[in-house]
């Protein structure tokens, strides 16, 4: 059977394992954010109630947050993408300059499989998750650390949680503005036209 002339040609962007890691991490992060909101926003706390259950969900979702990434390391495709995310080249600096100057011309925004914004976001959210995990453990195991440490951990945990909520809202907003990118994460494939336009160095 031949393809119709108007059928877009697609290329594989993400493997099944990579999509599973993203979805599972997103679900756990969503539970953390929603339960945190229920714990700290009085109106939500009154609406939901059952504070002990909310605290338990928050703790276990937070502890489980690194698990999908660790499990994903068995996938060669996932490990390769981590390598792409960890490399910041001259083209990424060019992309950032164009983004800062609001230059949306494709030629001015060269990108490999991930653009500079995605790399910065991935690095930041990974570091923030580790800090949240560490401060959360200090708050949970109160007998293991001095009071000053626990007070400092609570301060960092609360304010970083707010920052994560804002950054996640921006991440979701960017995804909503790019249906083809969402399709790539949902199905694993994107059109060749989109790949050539948004990630030309990857397509080459």
Automatic annotation (TrEMBL):
<keyword id="KW-0472">Membrane</keyword>
<feature type="transmembrane region" description="Helical">
    <location>
        <begin position="57"/>
        <end position="78"/>
    </location>
</feature>
<keyword id="KW-1003">Cell membrane</keyword>
<dbReference type="InterPro" id="IPR051817">
    <property type="entry name" value="FDH_cytochrome_b556_subunit"/>
</dbReference>
<dbReference type="InterPro" id="IPR016174">
    <property type="entry name" value="Di-haem_cyt_TM"/>
</dbReference>
<keyword id="KW-0812">Transmembrane</keyword>
<keyword id="KW-1133">Transmembrane helix</keyword>
<dbReference type="InterPro" id="IPR011577">
    <property type="entry name" value="Cyt_b561_bac/Ni-Hgenase"/>
</dbReference>
<feature type="transmembrane region" description="Helical">
    <location>
        <begin position="159"/>
        <end position="177"/>
    </location>
</feature>
<feature type="transmembrane region" description="Helical">
    <location>
        <begin position="20"/>
        <end position="45"/>
    </location>
</feature>
<protein>
    <submittedName>
        <fullName>Cytochrome b/b6 domain-containing protein</fullName>
    </submittedName>
</protein>
<feature type="domain" description="Cytochrome b561 bacterial/Ni-hydrogenase">
    <location>
        <begin position="13"/>
        <end position="179"/>
    </location>
</feature>
<feature type="transmembrane region" description="Helical">
    <location>
        <begin position="120"/>
        <end position="139"/>
    </location>
</feature>
<dbReference type="Pfam" id="PF01292">
    <property type="entry name" value="Ni_hydr_CYTB"/>
</dbReference>
């Amino acid at each position: 059977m031949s393809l119709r002339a108007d059928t877009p040609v697609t290329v594989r962007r993400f493997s099944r394992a990579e999509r599973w890691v993203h979805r599972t991490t997103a679900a756990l992060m969503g539970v953390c954010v929603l339960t945190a909101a229920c714990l700290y926003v009085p109106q939500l706390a009154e609406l939901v109630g059952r504070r002990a259950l909310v605290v338990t969900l928050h703790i276990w979702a937070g502890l489980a947050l690194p698990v999908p990434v660790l499990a994903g390391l068995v996938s060669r495709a996932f490990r390769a993408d981590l390598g792409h995310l960890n490399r910041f080249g001259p083209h990424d600096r060019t992309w950032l300059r164009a983004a800062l100057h609001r230059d949306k011309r494709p030629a001015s925004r060269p990108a490999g499989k991930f653009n500079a914004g995605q790399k910065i976001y991935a690095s930041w959210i990974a570091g923030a998750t580790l800090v949240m995990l560490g401060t959360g453990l200090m708050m949970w195991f109160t007998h293991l650390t001095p009071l000053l440490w626990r007070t400092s951990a609570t301060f960092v945990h609360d304010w970083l949680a707010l920052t994560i909520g804002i950054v996640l809202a921006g991440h979701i907003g960017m995804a909503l503005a790019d249906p083809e990118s969402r399709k790539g994460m949902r199905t694993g494939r994107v059109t060749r036209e989109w790949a050539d336009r948004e990630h030309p160095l990857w397509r080459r």
